[in-house]
Amino acid sequence: MKVKIIKGTNQIGGCITEIESKSARIIIDFGEDLPSDEVKDCHENPMIDGLTTGKRKYDAVFITHSHGDHIGLIDYILEDISVYVEKESKKIYELLNKFTYKNTRFKTTDMEFNKPITIKDMKITLFRIDHSSYNSGMILIESNGKKILHTGDYRNHGRKGGLFTSTLNKIGEVDLLITEGTTFGRKDEKYKTEEDLELLASHEFKKYNQIFILQASTNIDRIVTFYKASKKAHKVFIEDIFTANITNILNSNIPTPKKFNDVYAWIPLKYQDKPKKFKDKYFLPFEDRCNSMIVANDFTMLVKTSMLKDIKMLKEKGVITNACLIYSMWEGYLEKKSFKDFIDGIKDLGISFKIIHTSGHGDNTARKIVNEITKPKKVIPIHTENKEIAKEVFKNAIILDDNEILEI
Ligand SMILES: [Zn+2]
Ligand SMILES: [Zn+2]
């Protein structure tokens, strides 16, 4: 098989991997670059011949998870190329696009965990893995006696961390490992688990009456963490309406206003002008569980940077007495203007500010487990700004540049 990292040997996010066997050619992940600033348009067509332009040269595209840096550009893929996406990840992706008005292709093919898909002489299997995006997967490609594992994004300190070793054992030894290396530069630091965060958060939540949380709506592990902490601190839990829609569509026991009697929804002021059709579809189902229906003085509320007006309004109404904003995302985003403006506005309202977070990506302990179990003959680091550091854990690391070809 031949492997080419079209993009991703020198950057975090926006990685595109091409794998070719004797008769098939596929792509793994097709996402946007992570924005380095707010001016750059990350949603441009990358213009790949046979994939997004010209005549079809690829058999299929497989997506590891619903983060924008892995799925965000699939609307540019030629109509006659199948795009395989895990079912729950697809639901999240669709909803995200409905709320953000991005044009997108929703015609994808469902892919289930542990159920192989055959494309000519390739067998492709998705395995569930722990990451900060719900139902993330690693992809195993088998062809002509060779095995390639593409890890997607992974960690082992989240709520699915217990599956990590058993999943890797199912996959077994591989000829080539293509691994993400987001945290390569961060050395041996051992990351906090979601359970550690839950304990920390429940202590903090007890110090305040109102808690606001800035976190990704698609990070379901974190929603569960903060819901549990909020419950321990005897507060009701309020999800902004976008998050409420996400938690409502997923097939599991995730805190959502539709199923939990201590969970409510908040429709932000910025959505007042949405068309009736949109409101009927996404707001109406939560009608008896939102805004004026919330009676508690002590609450935990998931917010967005676009919700400063809402928080100001609550302050003016005397609802906010002793409040704290918890920041629970990658600290790099704090440099963005929209985040700075929001947090400055929060502080002006006399609301405290704290960071409670753990990474969506694994530390060195996770990487060592991957290396020990899959015993890769060769390793290509991607999704990193420090690819040379791969050699510290993976002695068989091969340092490639974008578009270089490796044959196994
Ligand atoms: Zn990523
Ligand atoms: Zn991710």
User: How many helices does DSSP assign?
Assistant: 11
Give the radius of gyration: 22 Å
Count the strands? 19
CATH topology of the largest domain: Metallo-beta-lactamase, Chain A
Sheet with the most strands, sense and barrel status: 7 strands, mixed
What is the 3D shape? globular
Question: What is the CATH class name of the largest domain?
Answer: Alpha Beta
Structural class: alpha/beta
Give an overview of the whole structure:
Helix 2 (87-100) runs antiparallel to helix 6 (241-249), helix 3 (164-171) runs parallel beside helix 10 and helix 4 runs parallel beside helix 5 (220-232). The strands form three sheets. A seven-stranded mixed beta sheet has the order 6-5-4-3-2-1-19. It contains eleven helices and 19 strands. The model has no long low-confidence stretch (mean pLDDT 94). It is globular, with a radius of gyration of 22 Å. The chain has two domains: 2-187 and 360-407, Metallo-beta-lactamase, Chain A (4-Layer Sandwich); 194-355, Rossmann fold. The termini are close together. Helix content is 25%, strand content 22%. With 408 residues, the chain is an alpha/beta fold. Bound molecules: zinc ion (ZN) (2 copies). Residues 65, 67, 70, 131, 133, 153 line the site of one zinc ion. The site of one zinc ion (ZN) has 6 residues, from helix 1.
What is the structure about, briefly put?
This protein has 408 residues and is of the alpha/beta class. It is 25% helix and 22% strand. The protein contains eleven helices and 19 strands.
